[in-house]
Protein 1
Amino acid sequence: MAETPLPDHRQPWYRRWAGIPGEWRRRWRGMDARQRFQTGLVLRVLLLVFLIWVSWPLALFVAALMVIQYGTPYLPRRLAPYSRFLTPTVVLIVVILYPLYFASLAPMNILGDYPILGTMVVMGVYAMMAVGLNIVVGYAGLLDLGYVAFYAMGAYTCAWFASVQFANHKFHFGAIGVGSNTPGIHISVWILLLLAGLLTALVGIVIGLPTLRLRGDYLAIVTLGFGEILPQVARNGDNLAGFNLTNGPNGITPIDPPGIGNLNFLTGSGSFWTSERLYFWGVLALVAITIFSSLRLRDSRLGRAWIAIREDETAAAAMGVPLMRTKTWAYATGAFFGGVAGAYFASFKQSTFPGDFSFNISAFILSMVILGGMGNVWGVVFGAGFLAFLNQQGLADIGHWINDTFGTNLDVPKYQFGIYGLIIVLTMLIRPEGLIPSARRKAELHEGVHDTPLYDARHDAA
Amino acid sequence: MATDARSEPLTRGRGFNAAAAVPWIGLSLVALLVVWLAINLVKTPADFVSIALEGITLGLVYGLIALGYSLVYGILELINFAHGDVFMLGSWISFSVMAQHLDLGPDSAGFTVIWGLALTALVAMVFCGLLNATIERIAYRPLRNAPRLAPLITAIGMSFILQDVGLNRLGPAPVSVPNILPTGTVFTIGGNNYRWSSLIVALSAIPVLILLVWLVQRTRQGRAMRATAQDQEAAAMMGINVNRTISFTFLLAGALAGVAGLLYALYSTNIQYDQGFTLGLIAFTAAVLGGIGNLPGAVLGAIIIGLIQQFNEGLSWHAPGSDWTQSIVFAILILILVFRPEGLLGERTPEGG
């Protein structure tokens, strides 16, 4: 059913108008496995040449990943079971050492400077949120347009229990860099990360229980509604029946920094443990935990139930998957990561404002998931890092590059959301499985899920 | 509000039955709302009536947008997220035609205003209709056989693109539209003036609605639309060009959004690049409230939402105020979807126009 290509005149517009790329697509279709392997090699070399032009250290990194990818089959059999750890380990080492060498890297072509550590922290936070959203959208197939509500919930939890917001109460527990006479509740941020995650998961359950019975697009709208209500509560929350819950549009600031022992993340210590490096390594640890949990969850009984629901709800129910409970768990788990990310972000920015939580953020995180590849954690992390980098630094630098090269006078950041919209639309039209797809999801999107048996679909090992 | 047989529990155990309690919770919420309105009516009757009139006026404008959602949902079962932004661009093009190209203003002569506004309405309808049909052609049609969420996601992307266009055309700040309609008072209720501009806006929405009902109910094209909404395959077998019918539906929805954009610009005299998002969601709520896919339901829901919004912002006794308008509208949306997903008029197809 899926492998009978449409005749040319029946192809959708973006393929008919594609001209030369359309020709490539037809050739790719006609190839056998060996030819595809060879073409893949050539395309990777071309990508490397392009990356060398952009920036050679980046090209080196990608080349190392490709060597691992092509090299693993040749490992001795004794080491073969460990080969799946190779790529994550290399990536982890390169990223952990990033603060030590990034200052000596020359700026990239087009994209401008390598991300500074502050940008890297933001990228990490968005990566956590995107992985969390990926559980809801990518695994369980429930479109959530109000993910920002979870982010807001996490941020405000951190703000309530680690600032002077409730000045009438005085409670200190493990907070770093707070004088013992400071009023308000001050709890260690690490505990608050967990607390924020749990509270947000609770909110996810509360939102989910009445709404998860609804069909996909209705559910999307309801989550969107919650995503609009929660920030508005935050904005009007300075006077909830006389009680100042959120300090209204002025937000809550300052929020305590995290710390380990006597090491305060805000002030740092000496020339090695600087504040930015500490925050960066902190978020890196959280992202690593998030990715790990997400991968393990996917392969667990619960994760397989999510994927079953996504592929065919009726069949899953017939096989004994409890729909409501499984969906609620997807919501709660996705919300948990959103809450943790929000709490860490609030602590990093030392503030939280209702204006930070608009629908645009929800859609921004959604476009990360879509661009990277719904259902594939690595793709989602890549999408999140790339888009967050564009948002923080890259777009302005691309603008400079365009203006310098073509002598134009464009203000590229002004077109920011148009560009994200374009990314969403083009990804959905041309490559709905995302840049780094999950094999299973790809099969679904290309063959449809209606009556195609997926029993023999290869489980992706990414 | 009869509960259908499926929601009856199979076993009648003793104790609290959550499923049976749901309609009662819904009804008691409605009862609370009615009590609140009644107390306000007794306390300040004059304010109440004038606010209600403003609410109906606003509701008719919302109705035009809500119809666009309902038409598209009825035929494709797609929530056209970009519709609100088409409406915003309708406001923008109306503004640029009437205020910048035709130089209409408070001092323009009556005849100039009439033909100027007619021309503006025409331009806005054609522009928005073509825009909406183009969006369908580019972004939704290729995904017609894809999983249901795929076109919804492209719709969000399209909404972003249109909003960005609006941002670059209108700028980040609200743009004020000159008072083109006469601002004199039609009548006064207890010190509250009902202005001519409101009356004209309300009255010009009505012929558009009648035209739409005629189109869907009485014409060949309308019959094709209803048939396509019921069953695309069967409609195609009966010789209906399904693609063209869907394009026509989008054209119609866009034209309605164009009129709504013009009327909203005239009514609120303030347009902003993100109005499409906010008002689009309000109108969508209205469509769901009335029963999405149901055309009279959309208008009814829109009038109710308009009334609720104006009551909330205007009444003096325990009204939450305009800070909470959006929350209240979304709360209504959520409650409706939870308690009565089929809406007030309870049909899923746009039959019966």
Protein 2
Amino acid sequence: MARAALGYLPALLAAALVVYAIAAGGYFVALAGFALIYAVFVSGLNIFMGYAGQASFGQNAFAAIGGYTSAVLTTAYDVAPLPALAAGVAGAIVCAVLIGYLTLRLKGHYLAMATLAIGLIVYEITVQWQSVTNGYAGISGIPPLRIAGFEAASDRAQLVLLSALVALCMGSAWLIRHSRFGRALVALSGSEEAARALGIDVARYKLAAFVVSAVYAAVAGSLFVHVVGFVSPEVFGMNMVILGFTMLYVGGIGTITGPLVGAIVINLLPEAVRGLKDYQDLVYGAALILILIYAPGGLAALGWPKRTRPARADAAAKLEPASVEP
Amino acid sequence: MNRLRVEKLTRRFDGLLAIDDVSFEVPPEGVTAVIGPNGAGKTTLFNMISGFINPTEGRIFFEDEELTGVAPERIARRGLVRTFQLVQLFHNLTVLENVKVGRHVRTRAGLLAALARPRWARQEEKETERRARELIEFVGLREQAEVRASVLSYGRQRLLEIARALAAEPRLLLLDEPAAGLNHDETERLSRIIRAVAGRGTTVLLIEHDMKLVMNTADRLVVLNFGRKIAQGAPAEVQANPDVIEAYLGGVEMLHA
């Protein structure tokens, strides 16, 4: 019973935050909005890293593709926000297939380095391709989301819309995890050899997981620019990857609700320690370390019986170069 | 028609001859065992049959269709499934989920079916669940169905690996030293399970080091030593073969142990 109740906790926490933010308004709305957008981004990262056990340090590239496509299409070509988002997702899919095809034969550290390079390359493009991206100055005046006549013009309306989208993304993650497709991903993270011996086309499944995670990242990137109304290269820089990783591990890698929990905690924690002034970074860091020590499977896995809890070390272990058949 | 036919198979690793001109056939009925001292080339032979490494020379046929150079995942789809000497479980999945993954080649739901859940996919999942539970029951792991695979004892992990392989409904099951690391009781239980699998019509080819398991379980033996086939036949014949006695008792075993 206690365990079942704990399972609903992340959703309740998120709902409480959103309701509070709507009531309180102001800065809290922005904070809740960022948490929800990051929950989408990290859910995608979780499918590639948590389920399939692969490392990608370049997910910000796909967020940038989604974000900039939305920004450019809506401001320069008068495209409506939703089709612009769809175009960004399509662009991210095409890029993920090409990049994945070339890089996914690499394993462990090598894959991490290759994906890191992709993130840096896309960042450079957003800086250098002035005629389209306007360089460091960025693009402003991006319209808010509008879905089927419901324009999320006010901050609070946007929050409602984001909540619905997060629910959709988490639901999809659950459906994926509890299917033949999702099981195959978790299987290959455990043993690629055994997965192949059972007929799983490992290369194809890794690519599929990479593309799905890119779709989540592109949606998050696009949502971000429509909510904030502005985009610049820094928005999708390396700090996005670092934040995403922190959220994934703090929330619970490989779990369904972990990304949401992580996104909320990592967004709120700096606010909670802000009053400490000079010590705020120190306390923030200490809090992160304590969470990782005392909730090794992530906050979302707290209270699970040990024998069913996902092993946190497994994903990290995958960063080691895989042993080669003698 | 033979289930498996290996013709003049040779595998060289940097000058070392791991398998040297080995030929044999596996009929569809019963249990065939490949035995030999450590370093005889048994696992190399299995890795070639299951497609994980390519032979230097020679050919492999599964039900008269050539397997040489075919990728492991394609070989599995044709109905030849293997287990590993060092158990390779999917440690982040439950026992039940591990066996469900074994159904992969018998099912087809992809990403879109996972998201849209059409009727056929729900039916397929139901059938997967039913079959997986049957197999867990068969190997005696019902109590552990919802437990994460990595917390099982070693003996149970071996049984789970076999259940998972059986979920693919292979026509030929390759077991790589299934008794390694098992105690006496577990080995006996394993022997009964292997006989039951063969009794259901699945051809079993196993590599084994444990002579007791082999003598109790196998219908025919192929003996390797230093990469070469030195004998084959029924267990009693092989046991009386002077070359085999030499290989096992003539100090070779001590050298390689």
